[in-house]
Amino acid sequence: MDKLLLISSREEDVHFWGNIAQDRGLALVRQTGPDRLNQIRNHLSQNPKSFVLWEADASQERERSEIENLLLSHAAPERVFALSDGPINQQEGLSRPPAFGHHILRRYDGPASFIYSKLFEAALSSDPFGLERFFPQGAAREVHLKHSREKATTLGQVEEFLTELGLHSQIIRLGVEAADELLMNALFDAPFAANRGYYRRDTDRAESFPLLENEQVRVCMAANAEIVGISVTDPFGSLSREQVLKHLCQDLRFSEYLPPEGRSGAGLGLYRVNQQTVALLFSSKPGVKTEVSIFLSNSKSYREFRLGFCFFSILNGEA
Length: 319
Prior knowledge:
Elements: E1 3-7, H1 11-24, E2 27-30, H2 36-46, E3 51-55, H3 61-74, E4 80-84, E5 102-105, H4 112-123, E6 141-145, H5 150-164, H6 169-189, E7 217-223, E8 227-234, H7 241-248, H8 268-275, E9 279-285, E10 289-297, H9 302-306, E11 311-316
Parallel strand pairs: 1-2, 1-3, 3-4, 4-5, 9-11
Antiparallel strand pairs: 5-11, 6-7, 7-8, 8-10, 9-10
């Protein structure tokens, strides 16, 4: 049985994740007491494939730092989920690069149980792809882009889909903006060839060009009574976990953002998407495909949406 190590003193974490572990057939393990650090070290050494839920905003800064160092040396980041009450990029003292590959805001009401159970289902799978995992069979709408100019009409279809659901206008705007960012990444940042490198990153974003069969982009939209999902899939699998974490974990409140390599807006869009309480799921199989999904609350209340679930997660398919 796979294990889920919970490193948290918060009873709400124990209760919530205990139920998720039971639902997914995981053995929940807690380490407490004066010898806690050694217990965590021993568990990680003996169970290297354990998933870890870590209280990244624990009040005891020294112990938090010691646990983070343990995770850096004994756990793979893709198996570590950081928990916090606020944005992880505003948590002081975290290492760079971080010890985790996922972050979950501690908001456990509404559809949180459902979506995090499904998230762990994907994390446990060698094939984490498919927005359909979160929705009833046949519920998804698909659009296939064969030309860059189809981005505008595709965004129109996304807006129409969200409007039909009766979402608050600000949620619709955020959903369309997020889809736009994902499409820009799929069309310009993802394309890669061994002999050409990232061959569209310097292309003018207004340029119009056809997509070859091995460049075409898939957009999927689906909804149930509580959540809405939109995914964008490219056929390259060139996603860099390190770059994603670098962008999502940066704190831009007090500093100017400088796009890497002079590329206007590179990475900033993903940062803004996640900061707007839009959940992000990255799934990538190197050299094959990358699927980036966003999740929104199916809500007519913008305030309810802003107080709802939010996470980012980076999963790898088997190479």
